[in-house]
Every structure is written in structure tokens, then in C-alpha cells.
Specification:
Largest sheet: 3 strands, antiparallel
Number of strands: 3
CATH architecture of the domain at 11-72: Orthogonal Bundle
CATH class of the domain at 11-72: Mainly Alpha
Shape: elongated
Order of helices and strands: HEHHEEHHH
Number of helices: 6
Structural class: mainly alpha
Distance between the termini: 51 Å
Radius of gyration: 19 Å
Strand content: 5-15%
Length: 126
């Protein structure tokens, strides 16, 4: 039985999206040049990954001369929201409270971070 294709971004896809979000549009060569990766990426690898992102609905392309120019269709904030929604559903029974408790209990939060969290909670109460 074939595995269901994920609509979530893989780590490799996210690295390419970071370039597109920053530049707003880029050719495959531009992405190869600007992507942050532990090892250099081949042009063909980046092209294949961009095609996968296009099939997932994250990017679109247009032809400019011989080059394909890619643009993000999904804003960074929307991708973050989608990832958090999946995380909540899969690991925290759709409970933002369980997620926050896990973060607070399992992370070393600085006093400044805790203060900002308290302030945000107070703002949401109003």
C-alpha cells in the first residue's frame, strides 16, 4: 500500500522556502546559491524539490527566458500555523494547553521569555 503524501514541509523543503520567503522570487540558480544547507545542493536536487513544493501548492513558477522563476504561494505565517495545527493534532490531542505545558516543563525558559509569555496571556484575557 502506497504511503499517503504529506502536505507538510520537510526540512529540505523548508530551507528552500526560507530563500523564497526572503527573496520573494528566485530562479533555481538563485536558490542553489542562497540556500543554507550543511552540504552544497545540486541544481537538479533543488529543481526537483521546487517541483515537489509546486505540487504541494507552496510555490508557483513562471518562465523568464530559459529560467524558471519561483514564487511562494504560502506565507511563512500560514506555513507555521499549518505545522503547529498538525503538531497539536498529532501529539497534543488538539490541546494548546498541553503544548504550552510541555514547552514550559521541558524547556529551560529564561526569565525574559517567561515574562513575555505572562504578558501575552494577560493580553489575551482582555
Amino acid at each position: 500500500m502506497a504511503r499517503k503524501r504529506s502536505t507538510q514541509l520537510t526540512d529540505a523543503e523548508l530551507r528552500l522556502m526560507e530563500v523564497l520567503w526572503k527573496k520573494r522570487e528566485a530562479s533555481v540558480s538563485d536558490v542553489v546559491e542562497h540556500v543554507e544547507s550543511p552540504t552544497p545542493l545540486a541544481y537538479s536536487t533543488v529543481l526537483t524539490t521546487l517541483r515537489i513544493l509546486e505540487n504541494k501548492g507552496y510555490v508557483k513558477h513562471r518562465k523568464q527566458g530559459r529560467a524558471f522563476i519561483y514564487q511562494p504561494l504560502v506565507a511563512r505565517e500560514n506555513a507555521q500555523h499549518k505545522a503547529i495545527t498538525q503538531l497539536l493534532r498529532r501529539f497534543f490531542r488538539n490541546s494548546p494547553e498541553l503544548l504550552m505545558l510541555s514547552l514550559i516543563e521541558n524547556r529551560k525558559l529564561s526569565p525574559e521569555e517567561l515574562k513575555r509569555l505572562r504578558q501575552r496571556i494577560q493580553e489575551k484575557k482582555k
